[in-house]
Amino acid sequence: MPAEVPHSPERPPVRGALSGSTSSLGDGTGSLAESLPTGLDPEPVRQRAGAQDRLEVVTIDGPAGAGKSTVSRQVAGQLGFRFLNTGLFYRGVAWRAAQMGEGTTAFDWLEGLSLRVDSSVPAPDGAMRDDDPVYIRTAEGEREIPASELKGDGVKARLSQVAADLQVRQFLLPLQRNCAKDGPLVVEGRDTGSVVFPDAAHKFFLVASLERRAERRHSEELERAANGGAKATDVASLLCEIAKRDSIDYSREHAPLRRPEDAVYVDSSDMTRAEVVDHLIRRVKGEGGAA
User: pLDDT (tens digit, 9 = 90+) per residue, 234-286?
Assistant: First the structure.
């Protein structure tokens, strides 16, 4: 039986939210329990719409530090598809959770909350951006939360708690699915092929060894630091941080990180970024290549 959304009589119902510039959830007058499916509904969008073909969506899932964002953006740019980083939704909620402080719950974080996340077509070269913001609207008005704040220590400290919360995942699931209504989409995350878009036309599960992921993350942080960003974390600390995140992601109760049965498994430990991008694009175009 699907898990029911708990309701507290002491708290007002959580309102609907927005994704993108026009997408909406409900009419903004119902509670979370009334507006959203119970549990993490795996029913694909196309079945609700009555369409027969698979969704023109490419999902790229995998553990932290596997290079999903960079690869996904480049794949989208070269295919001319829009790109969506589902992690930005969770970082937006985590930012609000950090602002509200300890002792608050999903009822507090989601009350009156609206989110907007960009899902445009990247440049053809898929150039990595560090400035992807999340637009958050609350009773106090709308605010653009820059990437620097979304990647701050306060957000990092709350991210795993937020991502594991069933109410948060139920709240964000329709918003993420709604992004597929505007055309072909490359989407990256941890459950995009298993939960968000189970009927996607193409699914990939991107992995790499723990050591390689820590090295790559360190290189990215060094590049950001050279461009005025925060000081890079040492490789040993990153290795421990990523291993901890793996443990949480693979073992959480709701929508744990797992490879969809129909996803192509890609181990990029000994592959360059260009090789990974080329491999995925060839698979999407039906040009073969070993799974």
Answer: 999 999 999 998 998 899 888 889 999 999 999 999 999 999 999 999 999 98
Structure token digits, residue 141? 């008005």
Q: Which tokens belong to 266?
A: 């890609």
3-state class (DSSP) for residue 288: coil
The stretches of the chain forming alpha helices (DSSP H) are 32-35, 45-49, 68-79, 87-100, 106-110, 147-150, 153-164, 166-178, 210-226, 235-251, 273-284
Amino acid at 119: S
The answer to whether 42 and 95 have CB atoms below 8 angstroms apart is no
pLDDT tens-digit series, residues 100-149 = 999 999 999 999 999 988 888 888 665 655 567 899 998 888 999 988 89
Q: How far apart are CA 249 and CA 72, in angstroms?
A: 20
| pLDDT tens digits, 166-223 | 999 999 999 999 999 989 999 999 999 999 999 999 999 999 999 999 999 999 889 8
Bridge partners of 115, per DSSP, are 136
Residue among 111, 84, 93 at smallest CA distance from 16: 111
From edge to edge, which strands make up the β-sheet containing 264-267?
82-85, 185-189, 55-61, 200-207, 264-267
How far is C-alpha 127 from the geometric centre of its chain's CA atoms?
Answer: 19
pTM above 0.85, yes or no: no
Q: Which residues contact 44 (CB under 8 A, 6 or more apart)?
A: 55, 197, 198, 199
Q: Which residues pair with 117 in a beta bridge?
A: 134
User: Around Cβ 16, how many Cβ atoms within 10 Å?
Assistant: 23
